[in-house]
Write a structure and sequence with these properties.
Organism: Tepidamorphus gemmatus
Number of strands: 15
CATH architecture of the largest domain: 2-Layer Sandwich
Catalytic activity: L-histidinol phosphate + H2O = L-histidinol + phosphate
Protein name: Histidinol-phosphatase
CATH topology of the largest domain: Fructose-1,6-Bisphosphatase, Chain A, domain 1
InterPro entries: His_9_proposed, Inositol_monoP_metal-BS, Inositol_monophosphatase-like
Helix content: 25-40%
Oligomer: single chain
Number of domains: 2
Structural class: alpha+beta
Keywords: Amino-acid biosynthesis, Histidine biosynthesis, Hydrolase, Magnesium, Metal-binding
Radius of gyration: 17 Å
Number of helices: 8
Largest sheet: 8 strands, mixed
CATH class of the largest domain: Alpha Beta
Length: 262
Amino acid sequence: MSDTEIELLAHRLADAAAAAALPYFRSGLTVENKAEGAYDPVTAADRDAELAIREIILRERPDHGFLGEEFGALPGNGTWQWVVDPVDGTRSFVSGIPLWTTIIGLRRHGTPVFGLVDQPYVGDRFWGAVGAGARMRNRFGQEVPIRTRACAALADATLMTTTPALMTGPGERERYDAVERAVRLARYGADGYAYCMLAAGQIDLVVETGLQSYDVVGLIPIIEAAGGVLTSWDGGSANEGGPVIAAGDPRIHAAALEILNR
């Protein structure tokens, strides 16, 4: 696939997901819990949005693999794989808060090469490919390139995480708290939308844990194309999720990693 073909298809996938999910937003829909001993909500919006994307891939690119949060994996020929979280931030979705997004990522031979994140209620859409830059389009149809902002020190940084309550692994909360104490401002609750704010130069750092591949594959190309860094807490690949850290400036990425690995 050419870069243009990838981008056009990804936008169509996002449009289809938005058409499926938006009618459910703030509608009083039924919410199910798919976790035992915890709360992991899922709704018809999650399922219908993923099926809308999956249907297009199966029809138009049957040789491509597919991995989605709700319905799992479909094999492809090994070259291309779409990795999708149809409604990232379902807790926000069921609370009527427009911070949920659809995250669409594309891997080539296992490496993330393109990402798109859509918030259709607000009207914000972000996309990017390494080597091609990152862009966003707002609800007024204005399309602009985006870039992370310079931030040399943690003391000047704005940090986001979904919630520190998710830091439940050994030592995770203590290490996260140490990073939060070092920054100027910390904000919670934006899920994947926070990474887009980082790519757009609005915040500087995102630190999270417990992520899956469908949470991050679509974010990595956008962050990197915008000039940022997204890795695991040990500085390795975040392609499969886990504890991740994203930074707009490599200097605060290094400083936060140092704290996380003490």
